Amino acid sequence: MSAFATLTLPKPWRRKNSVIPGFGLSMGVTLTLLSLIVLIPLASVLLILKNYSLADFWRVITDSQTVATYRVSFTCALIATTVNVVFGVLLAWILTRYRFPGRRIMDGLIELPFALPTAVAGIALTTLYGTHGWIGSLFDKIDIKISYTQIGITLAMIFIGIPFVVRSIQPVLEKLDGQYEEAAAMLGASRIRIFCRIIFPEILPATLAGFGLAFARSIGEYGSVVFIAGNIPYQTQITPLIIMLKLENFDYLAATSIALVMIVFAFVVLFGINILQAKVLRIAGGAT
Amino acid sequence: MNIKTLFTGKALALAASFFSLIAALVLLIAPIDALADSKSISLTNVSYDPTRELYEQYNKLFRAYWKKTKGQEVEIHQSHGGSGKQSRSVQEGNEADVVTLALEGDVDKLRKAGLIDPGWVKKLDKNSSPYTSTIVFLVRKGNPKNIKDWDDIAKPGVEVITPDPKSSGGAQWNFLAAWAFSNKRTNGDEAKNKEFVKAIYRNVTVLDSGARGSTITFVENRKGDVLLAWENEAFLVQKEHPGAFEIIVPSLSILAQPSVAVVDTYARKHKTEEVAKAYLQYLYSDEAQRLQGKNFYRPSNPEILKEFKSTFNLNVQLVNIEADFGGWDAATAKFFAEGAIFDQIYKK
Amino acid sequence: MQAKTVERTLIAIGVAFIALMLILPLVTILVYALRQGWEPFMDAITNDYAIKALNLTLLATAITLIVNTGFGLFAAWTITKFRFRGKQVLTTLIDIPFSISPIIAGLVFIMVFGRIGWAYPFLDAWDIKIVFAVPGIVLATIFVTFPFVSRELIPLMQAQGNEEEEAAALMGARWFHIFRKVTFPHIKWGLMYGVILCTARALGEFGAVSVVSGHLRGKTNTLPLHVEILFNEFRLTAAFSVASILVIIAIVILILRNIVEYKLKQEES
After folding, report:
1. Which of A271, B57, B245, B298 has the fewest CB within 10 Å, making it most exposed?
2. Helices C87-99 and C148-160 meet at what angle, rounded to 10?
3. Angle between helices C87-99 and A23-34 (to 10 degrees)
4. Cβ of B92 and C70 within 8 Å?
């Protein structure tokens, strides 16, 4: 390492082992902006809660209607993200391994849900899947309702989550060396076996990371889901919607408490992803 | 940390210019609101969902009136949404000069927050309700489910659309009207009333956050068999989609009195008290009352209401929030507060 | 099974998924926008309120881009060029707005700057309005797109390594000089990529802005909020027309993104 390595024991937030200047300034700007825009506002949520007891907090976040919204949000997001993982792996695979006409356009379209305003997506999906929409009317014939049911919520979540999974896996697949696959194929391994034994372990961390991102996004999504969710308590009421409802009833305790639960949840998911990615990087770095 | 590296000239200059750019931009946009022309005055009216069309027209009328009497241009900004939601935004700092909301309770929340001076209800005629309305049923053409009265929408197999009373004023009127119907029939048997409203809400498949959201769900997305709607909203839908829907007036409904008030604190701050007061008072003028009638609100002036007797069913029995429910505070505590009857009917 | 058959089946499934899930909603918007012909479409998008809403959206997006690009550069520099304790926590904190519900993003600003917020007495004394005014909309937009640029830059700069910067530093180059001459050429396309994504999200933000906006037409109404208003006024065609502007912007952004990605790949190879 660098010749300027300090001999003192490292202290938290202290720069080690780098000769590159600018640590103080860049760390300063980063922390200032981060605090001003993210941390202080988020901490204000705690400030509102300090007027209430822990028992109040607990009562509010375990209220049966609220718990039902966690269940709806969680199950719909879980199903949506699982669907997205299956299709995400498939899409990433065909986009990196196959050459076919329209591939570039398809590749570009993956990020559409990301670029399309959520409200616009919500209105479009509700219209499309409503009982008289192009797709909704087909399902209506076999008596399946999509808009305003959990199926609708799940579909909206699939829509917004797909880019996260594809874009997490794609770069890994691109870098993955084809020679092991070829070797395995020459040794007579079946295609499924090659996928399970060689490719899958390689893309697993990236898939998990994509899963985490899409999942966290689905749980928190408001704009596109709110139009298609029926908002029936215990059935189609999602957590972000109940926060809005509590807020509209001036129930700041409930709104902020439930918000806090979601913030902690988001933090845990993200922290997991970041550790995972650091691990992936270390493995990738070790291999070269 | 090395202070010297931190303050190397160029880096510092970069950071400084970066921050001053942000500061300049913030300063640049902050006073946009303050840039109003001194010859004109700006008024903000925060209202509830179905009044969009009414106030769009009323604002034109009032601007002409104010120009004629005071020689001043008024620029009126409108905001619409679920009544409870709108009341919240005003309380949290959406600086409305006047509020025109769906129910007294939502306006009174602003008095409790110290934004409106006490005694506001008596400041304007008719308890500050220039127009009233009631709750009716909107069904699809031909009334395929044969819905005539409140009993019919409590039957299994009927899909009902109504907004969420937790955020919508109109939805609270809907709920109370259903309750009043049952209460009359059961002679005040609370347990049976609860069963009755529970049966209705079991039929509800979409609970939008505002009255307009429910109308869109029912009309544009064609969901449900019956929409519990403001009378004015139901008429408006008929006007927009002639022949596609029918209005059913139940045997009993509720006298819905939307309330209007000047938000004193903000009006004083903006120095708009005079125009704000005039804006609301002018709602009682003959021209404005007729305009309300044309937009399917029942004018509070009985003479003008008569002019619209071909439009409105004036024979429907209407219960009243004061006499039949003991006022909004009592009604809110009993039905819509946390854990009250509305929450209970959804508990398993 | 033949390899070709497998390939074709997989491609078919993928194309079907994209067509059904992504292209169809897009087509829905455009068809609904134009179903009454060209004139109502033009009326809707040249409406005074629509143009004011577009201006506000563009203003909020421009400020957001400046702040987030600046932040992204500093944050990526801090995280990739130095080693310090708590780096993992810092990275996670930066990413938080990414996975937090937009509703909460709006809520937190109400809790700070609204009448119930702790900063309100101060703001009121100086007659500064943040929430339910333009600054609140800008802040909410910055919040939800905060990590976008840094998230693109961090992996790129990590992969690049620090050798060149270290060499430059040892030769006595100053901080800004190193950044401009050594680091920037490597990351410029990555930076563009982040900026483009950030633009896309900033233009379309709905949930957070909806909480902090007073929904005043012509004043605190952004384009996505305007779409919602039109939708709620039985003016479906107008709503879809205005929405189609946003769709077109989204498509342009996607095309730009593809160009940038192509450049990025060229750079790598």
Report:
1. B57
2. 140
3. 40
4. no
CA distance A271 to A276: 8
Domain range annotation of chain A: 53-287
Q: Where in chain B is the domain with CATH 3.40.190.10?
A: 33-131+257-307, 135-255+316-346
List of chain C residues whose C-beta atoms are within 8 Å of the C-beta of residue A22: 77, 81, 175, 178-179
Cα–Cα distance list, B266 to A249, B38, B117 (Å): 22, 18, 11
Structure pTM?
0.82
**DSSP letter for each residue of B43-78:** EEEEEEGGGHHHHHHHHHHHHHHHHHHH--EEEEEE
Distance CA C259, CA C221 (A): 32
Q: What is the DSSP string of B163-216?
A: --TTT-HHHHHHHHHHHHHHHHHHTS-HHHHHHHHHHHHHTEEE--SSHHHHHH
Q: Taking CB atoms and an 8 Å limit, are B30 and C215 in contact across chains?
A: no
Which tokens go with B119?
A: 């005694």
Q: What homologous superfamily is domain B33-131+257-307 in, according to CATH?
A: Periplasmic binding protein-like II (3.40.190.10)
What 3-state class would DSSP assign to C218? Answer: coil
The one-character DSSP state at B32 is: G
How does pLDDT run across C235-245, given as a tens digit for each residue? 888 899 999 98
What does R_g of chain A's alpha carbons equal in angstroms? Answer: 23
The answer to whether residue C30 is domain-embedded is: no
Cβ contact A30:B18 at 8 Å:
no
Residue C129, domain extent: 35-268
Number of domain units in chain C: 1
Domain B135-255+316-346 class in CATH:
alpha beta
Higher pLDDT: B156 or A24? It is B156
Question: Which among B5, B223, B338 has the least Cβ separation from residue A24?
Answer: B5
Mean pLDDT for the stretch of residues A169-195: 78
Tokens 């050798």 sit at which residue? C163
**What counts of helices (H) and strands (E) characterise chain A?**
15, 0
What is the pLDDT confidence band of residue A284, given thresholds at 50, 70 and 90? low
- Residue in chain A nearest B18 by alpha carbon: A29
**Residue among B63, B66, B61, B94 nearest B80 (CA):** B94
Q: Could you tell me if residue B224 is left (phi over 0), alpha (psi between -120 and 50 degrees) or otherwise beta?
A: left
